[in-house]
Structure formats: structure tokens, C-alpha cells
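I would love for you to help me understand the pair of lines that follows before we discuss the fold together.
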Amino acid sequence: MSEDKRRRYSAPVVDGIGKSASRAMLRAVGFNDEDFRKPQVGIASTWSMLTPCNMHINGLADEAGHGADEAGGKSVIFNTITVSDGIANGTEGMKYSLVSREVIADSIETVAGCEGFDGLVAIGGCDKNMPGCLMGLARLNRPSVFVYGGTIEPGKNHTDIISVFEAVGAYAKGDMDLIEVRQIEETAIPGPGSCGGMYTANTMASAIEAMGMSLPGSSAQNAVSETKIADCRAAGAAVLHLLEKDIKPRDIMTRESFENAITVVIALGGSTNAVLHLLAMASTAEVPLTMDDFTRIGKRVPVLADLRPSGHYMMSELVAIGGIQPLMKTLLDAGLLHGDCLTVTGRTLAENLAKVAPYPDNQRIIRSLDEPVKADSHLRILYGNLAPDGAVAKITGKEGTHFKGRARVFHSEEEAQARIMDGVVVAGDVLVIRYEGPKGGPGMREMLTPTSAIMGKGLGNDVALITDGRFSGGSHGFVVGHITPEAADGGPIALVEDGDVITIDAQTNRIEVALTDEELGLRRKRWQQPEPRYRRGVLAKYARTVSSASVGAVTDRP
């Protein structure tokens, strides 16, 4: 590939007498004459001191920049935002979490589009960073590599952030005193890195590696490690190789690569948020993907990983036995992955996995295909008169596959949390938390606080929770989210009343309320559209532009 082609975006910004002013500005930030002749590689960093997930990413961005520079490029580091779900959960601030995914995508597109970067490295840590980065890269469609910031080490006594949330519920039940809760609070988060189970961050990192948009091994590395530093340097260099080969994100983010991502997410027992984010990423890359694809693939892919929140082990323990590469090799050999998909190495997935060694014989984290944790997918796409456009459940089987109970209706997460903590919620209840969808919340908050309280109070097998909001990757129990149409759009969830009988069946994939069409019709006539909760600012803008959760809750859908 010619040098001019490698510089197709930066050359118009810096070449010729007419761009003297541009060069003058860039000289002030460290460019010299030689740099103007190099391909420019933007390093999109999500560093901030807001959260342990991202507190180390400035150093990783520097390493990626060095890698790009040593390979013959000129790196330019810029920042985008992050927010912390773990801090904001259970508060009004959590409404900004899913919004941040769109802001990240918008900001990466905006900076790279304006500055004329020829290629990009994007480094993400917390949940929304990863799909936000991939959406930005897919919009730009310039040679790019994603780097995961890495997982955190376990806290004292094998604790993590979910241990803290569930300790609060245990305290409310009387099983734990304040000193015990404080001890867990002080030791569960020992340093940098994303939350330690197969929660949303590790789920999405794994999905992106399976898709081919990060280098082999990137998803399963400790945040503070020599392997993560090497991963960042290699990513910077890989962009120059992609520029030479003219390989762009949409060459990699194909229908088959999304199917690979879904397959790996299921095998790992990953977060329900993967459904929302993969749909959003596919929409941005203009790849046809629907919720029903998760059901189709899930019929033939088992859950193999015994990882938190439903299992026992943490991501750092999976890292120690080889990460997800041996799992992917197993899935490939079983015909469950598309091996001919292109990746950011410039090679196919099958070529990347050809020499991967199997897991150690004595490991207990990843089961064999003959003895799975669950024979088919834990991600269940449910339909019925409560969710005509679909809903997403995470049913591992440990909580059962069928639940029938009486509705206890709440119009906000806070209201539900208060009634769980004070004992109003009892066995046999189906908590209905509505007006928490993408438009109604707005922002589709995660229900980690109430689900953790339910588990902490010992009600995990006795209470179900359904919502037009969503769940943290750390949520477990009998939970159903993403119910569409959402309540703010007049979906049936808006019509449920206290005492209505709700049935959830994860074998037939149905979610029903025991009401006739006539009764639902009468209630719909009485229903009134609620006033928007925000009239100005980013949440108001988001509510006006966001699409349904059934198509990814994106804001740029035509």
C-alpha cells in the first residue's frame, strides 16, 4: 500500500503550504518535520480517576502510543469519558450510564473525524467503554484495534464489588453486622482493573476478542501485568500493519464475527448486557442482527464456564489458566465458531487459534463440552403478552426455569429497593419495576442494587424481578429485563397492577400476565402517557433520540 494511502486522512490536514497553520499547531504538541510524513494513529483513552476500572489506562495509552511510534506511525493520545456503574448504581446518576456509551462513540468519532487520524487504538475499562469504543470505530471505519484495560485482582477472602452489594442485603436480613460489611467494603476492591467476575466488562472484552477486534489474549489479562503492557504496545504496532493491508473494522465486524461473539458470551455465562451492546454495535456496523439470533445460537451452544456471578471463579483465575483462547479453540474444533473470520492480526480466527494449547488437566473453571454447566444458553429471549417485542432473561438453571407469582408494582428502582429492605417484598412476589427503560428512565438503569438486596436477604429463589430497565452483569437470580415495548411507550408492562399473576417460563421462552386481551385493552384506554422526567440536557436529548432496547437502544438509528 502506498504511503499516501496510509495517510489518506492525515495528509489533507498537514500537507502543503496551505496547511502551515495546522502544522504550527501540531509542532506545539510535539510534532516535528518527520512526524508530518507518518500515518497518524489516534489513541482513544478512557482514563480517569473516577473508577478503578480506568485509573491505570493513562499508562496503557502511553504504551500503545509507543507501539505505534516504534512501528513507524505518529501517535496522538486523546481522552474520552467514563462513568462508574459500580458507584452510581441505585441512584439517579445511573441514568447517565448507558448514555455514556453514546457519548463515548460520539466523542471518538468527533475527534478522529476532525483531526484526520489514519488509524486508531481505543482502550476501554468499565462496562460502557467497550461497546462505546467499538461503535465509534465502526462509524469511522479506519484501521483500528481495541484494547481491554484488564481485570482486577480478587479482594480479601475472594471478594469483589458484588460481595459488597450483597453484604448490604445480608445486613438488612440480620445475617451480617456493620463491622462485617465495613470489612468487606474496605478490602473487596484492591486496585486497578474492571470488576472481577464474568460481569459486563469481562463479558464485552471477551466478545470483542471473539469478534476479532482485539489482539488474541487481550480480554483475559490482569490490569496490572506485563502481559497487558505488551498487549498495548502490540496493539499500537498492529494498527500500522492494518494500514498496510487496508483492513478496517467493518471488514472484521461481519455477521459471522458477531455470531462468534454471541457463542463465546454464552459459553462464558456472560452478562445480559451483551445482548443490548452487541445489537447496538451491529446496528452501527450495519450488520443485520436481532435478539432472535441469540436464541438460535443458544440452542446449540452450552454454558461451560463456572464464573461469577452465578458460578464460583473470577476472571483473574481464568487468566491464570490461559484465558479464553483455549475455550475458543474448543468451540472452533466443535464447529461452533466461524474460523474464517478476519481479525486485527490480519489473520483469520482459525489461524490465530491454530497453536493454542488446551487448559491444564486439573482446572475446574471451564467444563468440557460433554459436561457443561448448562446444555444450552443462559441468555433467554422471552416473548408474550407482557413483552410483545421481546425481553432478555439470564437463567442459569440454578434459580429454576419457571416462576409464577403475584405482581408487586413499582415506578422506580428506589421505590422497589426500599420495599425489599423493609420486608414488604416477600416470597412469591414478582417485582415489576417500570418506567426505567431507555426512554422512560431515561437511560435504562441497571437493577443491581435491588437484585443484590434480594440475594442478600435470602430471597433469590423465591422472588422474581422484571423490568423495562436492565441488569448489571453482576445480577443473578430470576430476573428479566429489556422488556419491550417499554412502559413509557405504552407497552403492556405499563398496564400491570398489584396482584396480577405473572408467569415466566425459560423453557418455552414466554413471559405472560394472566389478563385477557379485553382487560389489557380497557387498561390501555385508561393509561396516560407520563410527562418526560427531563426537558433539557443530555438525558432529555437521549430520551428524544433513543431507539428501543430490542434494537440496541442506539441514538443514531435511521
About this structure: The chain has three domains: 38-152+193-353, 154-186, 379-551. The domain at 38-152+193-353 is CATH 3.40.50.2300 (Rossmann fold).
